[in-house]
């Protein structure tokens, strides 16, 4: 009878563990490249270029509807950001500004990342979300 109780408890433990959802895991290589937001003229590029901080890489964003193009961006100024991407979906961006060297941090949670789709939302404002499609290089 004691062995039967131990068996039942072990079986229950296995059942509970198998029902626990695993946290999603994403690949940095899927994130890197050129992305377009919902068929608009807003683009984001996540690069492999290392920033001056350990673990951070550089990225850029621009909006061609406002007549701003990637080649218009001054290195490490407006439109540039440093980013850190964790496989659990945390995406930290530190936006760089020309005026006074200000750095504005934003934290996002990636909800979907495949080789063709990127979706994320602001950590503190879940209603602010973004959806992108991967682009072939222009």
Please provide a written account of the structure.
It is a single chain. This protein has a single domain (24-134), classed as Lipocalin (Beta Barrel). Helices cover 16% and strands 41% of the residues. The chain has two helices and eight strands, in the order ααββββββββ. Strands 1-2-3-4-5-6-7-8 form an eight-stranded antiparallel barrel. It is globular, with a radius of gyration of 21 Å. The termini are far apart. 17% of the residues are buried.
Basic shape: globular
Residues in helix, %? 10-25%
CATH domain topology: Lipocalin
Based on CA atoms alone, the radius of gyration comes out at 21 Å
Distance between the termini: 71 Å
Strand content: 35-45%
One letter per element, helices H and strands E, the order comes to HHEEEEEEEE
Structural class of the helix and strand makeup? Answer: alpha+beta
What low-confidence regions span 5 or more consecutive residues with pLDDT below 50? 6-20
Task: Give the mean pLDDT.
Answer: 85
Largest sheet: 8 strands, antiparallel, barrel
How many H/I helical runs? 2
